[in-house]
Amino acid sequence: MRIALGITYNGQAYQGWQSQPSGNTVQDHLEAALSRFAASPLSTICAGRTDAGVHGLMQVVHFDAPVERTEASWVRGTNTFLPKDIAVQWARSVPDAFHSRACATSRRYGYALLQSPVRPSVEHGRVGWVFQPLDLQAMERAVQYLLGEHDFSSFRAAGCQAKSPVKTLYAINIGRSAQRASASRDGVPSCYWRFDFQGSAFLHHMIRNIMGCLVVIGQGTKPPEWMQEVLDARSRETAAPTFSPDGLYFLGPQYDAHWGLPSEAISFDWFA
């Protein structure tokens, strides 16, 4: 029986998704919990790997179960053995043809960013941070150069294992909460920003490298047209430094409706 699971996790304490010799990754903890619940070794395949410090609001995995359990039991039983910052949200029986990575039609990421003269405290590890004001219109102009199919080599980490740097970005949306002038200092109003990305797939550090460029443009250091220059250069050296992983959330894959899988978790309401 093939089972698909929806997983949420706070990535602060872990070395990313993919299994490591240290055993301190989300995949390591999930597979250990599944194996204890099933009383048999289990391995999983995920829809999209995340880096150290990156959070997951809808990671989807699949595995072939050696034992028969109800869908509710896979959720509650596995969660019994998981750390408190990782949780299975749902389980579904799926056909053997389902593959969490190969069947995804697109993937979504969100980035939460605090604009404030003072660093985050309560939100530490859950938001990125800038202490200079950002220009929404400049950033919205800049992202237009990234939409569509492109060679994203300029936004690719040196250790990226993707076979091709060519990916398709379907949408990038930028929103901002109400600015609090009363919380400002030195003329910098405080607010939260949210950046949403949807694409066919993403390269290693691709979102964080795009974020670094958007922040540079938003702060007025570079014009929006500079994003096109970076893209055309196909060289990591031309782009801004890689931005913090703290505010990055994997919002999950999207699948054709016939698979019958949820597209969101309750944690989406918190992120909104």
Automatic annotation (TrEMBL):
<feature type="binding site">
    <location>
        <position position="109"/>
    </location>
    <ligand>
        <name>substrate</name>
    </ligand>
</feature>
<comment type="similarity">
    <text>Belongs to the tRNA pseudouridine synthase TruA family.</text>
</comment>
<comment type="subunit">
    <text>Homodimer.</text>
</comment>
<keyword id="KW-0819">tRNA processing</keyword>
<dbReference type="GO" id="GO:0160147">
    <property type="term" value="F:tRNA pseudouridine(38-40) synthase activity"/>
</dbReference>
<dbReference type="Pfam" id="PF01416">
    <property type="entry name" value="PseudoU_synth_1"/>
</dbReference>
<feature type="active site" description="Nucleophile">
    <location>
        <position position="51"/>
    </location>
</feature>
<protein>
    <recommendedName>
        <fullName>tRNA pseudouridine synthase A</fullName>
        <ecNumber>5.4.99.12</ecNumber>
    </recommendedName>
</protein>
<dbReference type="InterPro" id="IPR020103">
    <property type="entry name" value="PsdUridine_synth_cat_dom_sf"/>
</dbReference>
<dbReference type="InterPro" id="IPR020094">
    <property type="entry name" value="TruA/RsuA/RluB/E/F_N"/>
</dbReference>
<comment type="function">
    <text>Formation of pseudouridine at positions 38, 39 and 40 in the anticodon stem and loop of transfer RNAs.</text>
</comment>
<feature type="domain" description="Pseudouridine synthase I TruA alpha/beta">
    <location>
        <begin position="142"/>
        <end position="256"/>
    </location>
</feature>
<dbReference type="InterPro" id="IPR020097">
    <property type="entry name" value="PsdUridine_synth_TruA_a/b_dom"/>
</dbReference>
<keyword id="KW-0413">Isomerase</keyword>
<dbReference type="InterPro" id="IPR001406">
    <property type="entry name" value="PsdUridine_synth_TruA"/>
</dbReference>
<feature type="domain" description="Pseudouridine synthase I TruA alpha/beta">
    <location>
        <begin position="8"/>
        <end position="100"/>
    </location>
</feature>
<dbReference type="InterPro" id="IPR020095">
    <property type="entry name" value="PsdUridine_synth_TruA_C"/>
</dbReference>
